[in-house]
Specification:
The complex is a heterodimer of chains A (553) and B (313).
Chain A (H helix, E strand, L loop, with lengths): L5 E12 L2 E13 L4 E5 L6 H8 L7 E4 L2 E4 L2 E2 L5 H7 L4 E4 L13 H12 L4 H14 L5 H4 L9 H13 L5 E5 L7 H18 L2 E6 L2 H7 L2 E6 L2 E7 H6 L4 H9 L8 H9 L13 E11 L4 H6 L5 E12 L4 E5 L6 H9 L6 E6 L2 E2 L6 H8 E4 L13 H11 L6 H14 L16 H13 L5 E5 L7 H18 L2 E6 L2 H7 L2 E6 L2 E7 H6 L4 H9 L8
Parallel strand pairs in A: 3-9, 3-10, 7-8, 8-9, 14-19, 14-20, 17-18, 18-19
Antiparallel strand pairs in A: 1-2, 1-4, 1-5, 5-6, 10-11, 12-13, 12-15, 15-16, 20-21
Chain B lengths: L12 H7 L1 H7 L2 H18 L1 H4 L21 E2 L5 E2 L10 H37 L1 H15 L3 H15 L2 H18 L2 H16 L2 H8 L4 H37 L11 H9 L8 H28 L5
Antiparallel strand pairs in B: 1-2
Classes of the chains: A alpha/beta (553), B mainly alpha (313).
Chain lengths: 553, 313
């Protein structure tokens, strides 16, 4: 067996906090072979990122690293002084971080940053270094690198920027690249390209990669071997194919089962198909929500004068002539990449953003223009937000948060009645009613999202708009929240608008789907028609790009 | 992840407060402890002045000109003992300082409260509404911040003098002083609160409240205000020290509180006349008290700012 490129033995990272020690990584050992992509997967708090940070010697106080051995190509690299680590970072271990915006300095052109890194580590003069930088950018798939090299980071899109970061990480010909969630901030279509670039570049140079991610799909597409981490310990190690197809540990099995796959059919459709009732959907029912020719324009003209006189006007059409209907008791999934207008649509449908033109009708009432529209809309429409940390006021008790719609809409004035209702709602979202006296920071992300769901339900709405309700949550928690949403839909006959960039979640949850691209609804129809037989090119591209565990080699 | 939340530990409010990060940071900061002890002693002494002061310096009948210019820690010709000496009229300096601090603290606290109320309200409105209203409020604040606060206070004080009839001035002077100092300090509050409000306004809990039709005034008071008070407390503490100094400056310039109820600033003004004739204590003790008061409050404010800033922990 060849000598491993990176060898880690008994790595332990402890944070000495005020309320006792917290062990983030508890004695883990692993190897990376030359040219190998090692995927490290785990839920938030599993200690994945800290492992990467500890190898680079970047753990700050109050963290303490104890390790019996970390070696790179047989050479010890643990316990070095700052000077020793500086020679390793960048030169022998390259780094690719999650957010391409913060890992590049906005004040320098990408060329300056590349040339500086190259010259620091390699004995090249300015012209040679620049030539090398252009070559690196070309290899990372940046078109016209001779021109783009003098551009600033903000002039690149997110995906292009991440390509620059990858070239930067490879600039000094490192032996190992640690990539920490390199694609998590990117859209799926871009994500696939970035994984490909990273994998190809490293394979052609024999560079080892430690790919840290929460997304099993990314690992399935990119990695050779993988480590599953949980609570600072390694649960399972093995080849990607083995672990995904034949997981041994209960934790891994649970984790893999929780991942919604884009390849599996919508469960309701599948159940109906089994009984031969697919066509029986009541098409003639009047829809609950009708969206007709909805437009939303933002005026980004630089000054008041240009707005008035029309010179230098810059109008962004965030939503461009979107129409669809949602049947009562069904779920409509709205998918699209960032900037496609999904959230703007949601804001117009919930009453936060007035449409430029078009109408949103709920049971035939235009929620923007008809008389009594505001009351109708407030009573019948509620929303669940993406980030459960920002959607609950940290200074309010859970009970008050859930009761807010009841009080705001004056549905009940008796405190006892409100408390009963809150306790009931907490039970419905499977939390202990006793928690109503606590504050949001005492809960985990998934529990907070359930509190947000309880708040959305408390005014007994008919229609709930869910804007990326699970994208901030771990997969196992996501599965629970989605299952809860389905159960509540059946119990209360709710109608959902589910906005998500995660196509697998939408396929699992939605009855009908609309695909948005640059504000235009490119395709809309029943879920299995869209996923099974997409008509628009864009939809096909989007579906192909999704990394999925079923794609494992 | 299970459905069971962490078991509710029955903790009394006191235990929770003593266990909080703020108290922890306090106990580890010797400067904060010393500063708070000094501030509390001074404030208590000021409040209890009528009971603990050895003399009543404002009762003309107890004043004896024979006591004038008595040195500190000595007995006068009239047989009275003065710990910190006496001034030219024979008033006990310790007692005048205690009473003077009362006036200084009262004006400082009231002015800060006024500035805080005004600044926080305007900041909330500007930050939440945005647009033209925001521009108008913040430009006024900018103009005000480009002048020294003391000049603005002088201006307001002068205008008020002109408007209020002469026979009313004696009674209204404290109110005018508070308004003048308060109006010269609101801009700091408004700026900070506006910025914090603009951040909070974007958050989803505000959107959630808007969706259910909560009126803007309730969103501001019940949702946003509790989330922006942290920095306000810091500015208020540092602002208190500034207001005390500003009041002293105004009184030193002779436009502050009348000599019948002197503040620390008035005492310093009186004292500086005697500095070069050897009666140093008439100036030194009130000045030292003022420094001690302002410094301790300021250090407390500094500590609070660092303690509430998670990045410095």
């Amino acid at each position: 067996m060849a000598e491993p490129l990176l060898s880690v033995r008994d790595l332990k990272v402890v944070f000495h906090l005020r309320r006792g020690d917290f062990t983030a990584v508890n004695g883990i050992s692993f190897d990376i072979m030359p040219g190998e992509v090692l995927g490290v997967v785990g839920e938030s708090g599993a200690g994945k990122s800290i492992t990467g940070t500890a190898i680079m010697g970047l753990v700050d106080r109050p963290g303490e690293v104890t390790v019996s051995n970390i070696s790179l190509k047989g050479e010890r690299i643990d316990g070095l002084d700052e000077e020793g680590y500086r020679k390793i970072r960048g030169k022998r271990i390259g780094m690719v971080m999650q957010d391409p915006l913060t890992s590049l300095n906005p004040l320098y052109t990408v060329g300056e940053q590349l040339v500086e890194t190259i010259q620091r580590h390699l004995p090249l003069n300015q012209a040679q270094a620049r030539e090398r930088a252009i070559k690196l950018l070309a290899e990372a798939g940046i078109p016209k690198p001779e021109e783009r090299i003098d551009a600033y980071p903000h002039q690149f899109s997110g995906g292009m920027r991440q390509r620059v970061v990858i070239s930067l990480a490879l600039a000094a010909e490192p032996d190992l690249v640690i990539a920490d969630e390199p694609t998590s901030a990117l859209d799926v279509s871009v994500q696939a390209q970035i994984i490909k670039v990273l994998k190809e570049l490293c394979a052609s140079r024999g560079v080892g990669v430690m790919l840290i991610t929460h997304d099993m799909g990314v690992i399935a597409e990119a990695a050779d071997r993988m480590i599953v981490m949980n609570k600072g310990e390694i649960v399972e190690t093995g080849s990607v194919g083995d672990i995904i197809n034949r997981p041994k540990e209960p934790y891994t099995i649970k984790l893999i089962e929780a991942i919604p796959s884009i390849k599996s059919q919508n469960p309701r459709y599948a159940a109906a198909a089994a009984k031969g009732q697919v066509a029986a959907a009541n098409e003639d029912d009047a829809p609950l929500v009708t969206v007709e020719n909805l437009f939303c324009e933002f005026d980004l003209s630089p000054s008041v004068l240009s707005r008035l006189f029309g010179g230098n006007r810059k109008i962004i059409k965030a939503v461009n002539d979107v129409s669809f209907t949602i049947r009562r008791g069904s779920t409509y999934g709205l998918v699209g990449e960032s900037g496609s207008g999904k959230s703007t649509c949601a804001r117009m449908m919930v009453g936060l953003q007035p449409p430029t033109a078009g109408s949103v009708k709920l049971e035939g009432v235009d929620i923007w223009n008809d008389r009594g529209a505001a009351t109708k809309r407030r009573r019948s429409i509620q929303m669940i937000f993406q980030d459960p940390y920002a959607s609950l006021n940290p200074r309010w008790r859970v009970g008050d948060i859930i009761a807010e719609p009841i009080r705001a809409l004056k549905l009940s004035s008796s405190n006892a009645e409100v408390a009963d209702r809150v306790a009931d709602l907490l039970t419905k979202v499977r939390l202990d009613p006793g928690v109503m006296h606590k504050y949001p920071h005492e809960f985990s992300g998934g529990q907070r999202q359930r509190i947000a769901i309880a708040r959305a339900l408390s005014s007994q709405p008919e229609f709930i708009i869910c804007d990326e309700p699970t994208s901030a949550l771990d997969v196992s928690v996501q599965a629970q929240v989605l299952e809860l949403m389905t159960a509540l839909q059946e119990e209360f006959g709710l109608t959902y608008l589910l906005i998500s960039h995660n196509l697998a979640v939408v396929r699992q949850m939605a009855d009908a789907v609309g695909v948005l691209h640059n504000g235009v609804l490119v395709e809309s129809g029943p879920v299995e028609e869209i996923f099974g037989n997409p008509q628009a090119d864009y939809t096909r591209m989007l579906l192909d790009a999704v990394p999925d565990i079923s794609k494992v080699a | 992840m299970t459905d069971v939340t962490t078991p509710a530990k029955p903790q009394s409010r006191l235990v929770r407060v003593l266990d909080s990060d703020l108290v922890f940071s306090y106990r580890r900061s010797p400067i904060a402890i010393v500063a708070s002890i000094i501030a509390v002693v001074l404030i208590l002494a000021a409040i209890l002045a009528p009971w603990i002061a050895p003399y009543n310096p404002f009762n003309p009948r107890t004043l004896n000109l024979m006591d004038g210019f008595t040195k500190p820690m000595s007995t006068s010709f009239a047989g009275n003992y003065f710990l910190l000496g006496a001034d030219h009229q024979g008033r006990d300096l310790l007692s005048t300082i205690l009473y003077g601090m009362r006036v200084s603290l009262f004006v400082g606290l009231s002015a800060t409260l006024f500035a805080m109320t005004l600044g926080v309200s305007l900041g909330l409105i500007a930050g939440y509404r945005g647009g033209l209203l925001d521009a108008v409020i913040m430009r006024i604040a900018d103009i005000q911040l480009s002048f020294p606060a003391i000049l603005i206070a002088l201006l307001i004080f002068g205008v008020a003098r002109g408007l209020i009839p002469a026979n009313q001035q004696e009674n209204t002077v404290l109110v005018v002083l508070i308004l003048a100092i308060g109006l010269s300090n609101w801009a700091q509050f408004a700026r900070t609160v506006r910025g914090a409000t603009m951040v909070e306004r974007q958050k989803d809990y505000v959107s959630a409240a808007r969706i259910m039709g909560v009126p803007p005034i309730f969103i501001l008071i019940k949702h946003i205000l509790p989330n922006v008070v942290g920095p306000v407390l810091v500015i208020a503490t540092i602002g208190l020290a500034l207001a005390i100094i500003e009041e002293a400056t105004l009184s030193f310039l002779g436009v502050g509180v009348p000599p019948t109820q002197p503040s620390l600033g008035t005492l310093i003004r009186i004292g500086q006349q005697f500095l070069f004739s050897g009666e140093w204590w008439i100036l030194a003790f009130p000045a030292f008290t003022l420094i001690l008061l302002a410094l301790s409050v300021n250090l407390l404010g500094d500590w609070l700012r660092d303690a509430l800033n998670p990045r410095l922990r």
